[in-house]
Amino acid sequence: MTEIPKAKGRLDNRMRAIGTAALFVMTLLAYAPAMSAGFIWDDDDYITQNLTLRSLDGLRRIWFEPGAVPQYYPLVHTTFWLEHHIWDDNPAGYHIVNIILHAVSAILLCIVLRRLDFSWPLAWVAAAVFALHPVHVESVAWITERKNVLSSTFYFLSLLAYLRFAPPDEDNSLLERRWRFYCLSALLFLAALLSKTVACSLPAAILLLVWWKRGRLRRTDVAATLPMFIMGIAFGMFTAMMERNHVGAQGADWDFSLIDRCLIAGRNVWFYAGKIIWPVKLAFIYPRWEIDAHQWWQCFYPISAVALVIVLWVLRRRIGRGPLVAVLFFGGTLFPALGFINVYPFRFSFVADHFQHLASIGLTTLAVVLGGAAIATLGSRRRVIATAVASILLIAMGFLTWRQTLVYQDAQRVWEDTLIKNPDAFIAHQNLGNILLTQWKREPVNQKLRSQAIEHFQSALRIKPDFAPALNIIGVELARDGHDADAIEYFRRALDSNPQYVRALRGDPTALIDRDFVDALYNLGTAHGRLGQYDQAIQYLSMAVALSKPTPEFVHTRIDLAIALKRQHRIEEARAVLQKALEIDPANERARLNLQHLSDDHPP
Questions:
Q1: Region of residue 454 (left: phi > 0; alpha: psi -120 to 50; beta: else)
Q2: Which of 169-183, 431-445, 485-499 has the highest mean pLDDT?
Q3: Are residues 407 and 461 in the same domain?
Q4: Local confidence band at 505 (pLDDT 50, 70, 90 cut-offs)
Q5: 64/205 same-domain check
Q6: Which spans in 315-424 are helix H?
C-alpha cells in the first residue's frame, strides 16, 4: 500500500522537472533572435561607453558614488562590470544573461504559485504566460532593462523566503515563525531594490496574499512587513530624487497638476491591461497623450478603474477575494509608473512595456485561473478541446514574442519600427537621424544618407520645436556647410530651450546640467571662434569647461578654449588650460601638439 504513493510521488516529481525544463527551453526558443542582436538605445551609457566597467575603481564608484552611472542600481551595473571583464562588448553575452534571468523568473513564479496552493497545471501555465507574453520583450531583449529581469528574480526569491517564514495559510505568532527565512527574505528584497526600485511593492503584495488566503490581517502581519516597507519607501524616495536631479525628470514636460496625474494614471492602467489582453502593435515609444481635465471623457479612465475595485470589493464574498487581489496587485505594482512620480521616459510617452514587467502577473494569473475554472466545468471531450485551444494560445504568444524580438536586432530597426507605429515620436526621428549621419560619415560619398538624417532632425523639430538635441545637430550640420551665423541661431535656441540655462548662468549649483546643454555651449563657442569672435568664443567655451566633467570625454572643450585664448594673446591662460587637459587625458595627441606649438612660439 505504501509503495503506490511513493511511485506516484516520483512520477509527480519527474513531471514537474520536465515542466520546469520546458519553461526554460520555451523561453530560450521564444527569445532566440535576441542572442544575435546588438546594442540599442542607452546601451552605450550602460555598457559600451560606461567607463566604470573598465576598472576596479569603477566598481567602487558604481556602489558608492551615486551619479557615476545613469541610475543608481548597483547590482545591475555590477553584473555588467563582471560581464565586461568576461566578454568585453560582445552583446550576445549580455542578451543571453537577460534571457536566462527571465526564464529563471518564470520558474520561480511557478514555485511561488505552488507555495500558494495553486495546482501544478495552473501554476505552470501562469508561469508559461509570464515567460512567453510579448509585453515582456522590451524587458528581456533590451540589455539596458537588465534592471527588470534581475529585480524580478530577487523579488520572487524574496517572496519565496517570506512564504517559508510566514505561510499565509498559517496563523502563527511572531515567536513561532522561522526568522532565518525572514532575514533571508529581507536580504533578497534589498537585492531586488538595488536592481530596480519597482520591487518596493513587495511588502504590500505580501499583505495582499495574506488577506487573500486568510480573509484578515493581524498586527503581526503588518509588523513583520514594516521594515520592508521602510526600506522600499527609502529607496523609492532616493530613486525619485535621482530621476529628478540626475537623470533630468523635471521641467515643462513633467509639469502636471494632481488632477492631470490622476487622469494619466487612470489611462495608464487601462492601457497596460489592454496590452495584456491584446498584445498587438507593441511599440518601443508609444504616443504621448494630450492630458486635458476639461475633456470630460478623460475622467472615465480613473473613475472606471476605481469603480472596478469597488465592485470587486462588494462582490468579494460572492466571487471570492482573488479577482480583487489580482487587480490590486496589478495597480499597486504599477504605481511608480502611473504618473504620480516623475520618471524620465515621460518626456516621450506616459507608458512603456517594461513598466509592467512585474505588474502583469496579477492579471495574467487571474486569466489563467478563470480559464482553468471554465475548463473544469466542461465535459471530458470539451476539456480536451479547451486544453488544446489553451496550448495554441501559448504557442501563439511564443510566436508573437519571437517576432517582436526581431525588432530589437539593432538600433536602426528599433527606431524604424517605432516610427511606423508612432510617426510623431520625436526621439525616434532624432536617434534614427543620428544613425544615418554616422553611416554617412563612414560613406561620405553617399549624400543621400546625410539628407535623410537631416530630414529626420527637422521632423523632430516640427513635432517638438524646443528639442535641444535636434537643434544642436542641425546647427552642427549648418556649421559643417560653412553657415556659422545660421548655426549660432540653432545653438542659442538649444540653450534657451533648457530651463536650467538661466540658473546655470547665474552660477546656481543646483542647476541640472546635461550633455545636450554642454554640447550646445561648446558648439556655440567654436562657431563664434570660426567667425573670429573670440571674446564670445572664450565666454561660451569657458562655461562649457566649467560645467563639464573633468574626464577625457570633454577634453576637446579645453583644447578649443586654449586655441581661442591663444588667438586673444592670453598665452599663459591657454598654457594652463592645455596642461590641465593633459592631466585629465595624458594620451591626448591634440592637446600635446597644441601645447608644444604654444611653447615653441611662446617659450615659458
A1: alpha
A2: 431-445
A3: no
A4: low
A5: yes
A6: 316-319, 322-334, 360-376, 380-406, 411-421
Kindly state whether residues 466 and 504 are assigned to the same domain: yes
Angle at 561 between CA 560 and CA 562, to 5 degrees: 90
Same domain, 369 and 445: no
CA nearest 139: which of 182, 85, 76, 78? 76
Q: What is the pLDDT of residue 387?
A: 82
Contacts of 437 (CB under 8 A, 6+ apart): 449, 450, 453, 473
DSSP 297-326: GGGHHHHHHHHHHHHHHHTHHHH-SHHHHH
- Residue 44 has, within 13 A of its CA and on its CB side, a CA count of 5
Number of domains present in the structure of the chain:
2
The per-residue pLDDT for 2 is 38
Residue pLDDT, tens place only, 381-438 = 777 887 888 889 999 999 999 999 999 999 999 999 999 999 999 999 999 999 999 9
Say yes or no: 505 and 563 in one domain.
yes
Report how far apart, in Å, the C-alpha atoms of 251 and of each of 209, 242, 512 are. Answer: 39, 15, 10
CA atoms lying within 13 Å on the CB side of residue 317: 1
Q: Which three cell numbers stand for residue 47?
A: 555598457
- Last residue within a domain, chosen from 378, 411, 444: 411
CATH number for the domain spanning 417: value is 1.25.40.10
Length of the chain: 604
Cell numbers for 174: 511572531
Q: Could you give the CA distance from residue 561 to residue 559 in angstroms, rounded to a whole number? A: 5
Please give the pLDDT value at position 182. Answer: 93
Cα three-residue angle 79-81-85, rounded to 5 degrees: 115
Q: Determine the pLDDT at residue 335.
A: 94
pLDDT band at 4 (very low <50, low <70, confident <90, very high): very low
Handedness of CA 361, 364, 367, 368 (dihedral sign): negative
Residue 9 pLDDT more than 60?
Answer: no
Amino acid found at 125: V
State how far the Cα of 17 lies from the Cα of 9, in Å rounded to an integer: 12
The 3-class secondary structure across 392-408, one letter per residue, is HHHHHHHHHHHHHHHHH
What pTM value is reported for the model?
A: 0.91
Q: What are the angstrom distances between the C-alpha of 392 and each of 133, 217, 388, 400, 551?
A: 13, 40, 6, 12, 55
On the 0-12 / 13-18 / 19+ scale of CB atoms within 10 A, 269 is buried
> Over 60: is that where the pLDDT of 220 sits?
yes
Q: How far is Cα 63 from Cα 59, in angstroms, rounded to an integer?
A: 7
Average pLDDT, the chain: 90
Q: How far apart are CA 283 and CA 47, in angstroms?
A: 23
Which pLDDT value is given to residue 1? 34
Same domain, 567 and 462: yes
Q: Check if the beta carbon of residue 405 is closer than 8 Å to that of residue 443.
A: no
Q: Which domain-ending residue is among 358, 376, 411? A: 411
- Helix (H), strand (E) at residue 440: helix 426-442
Classify each residue of 446-479 as buried b or exposed e, where b means 16 or more C-beta atoms within 10 Å of its C-beta.
eeebbebbbebbebbbebbeebbbbbbbbbbbbb
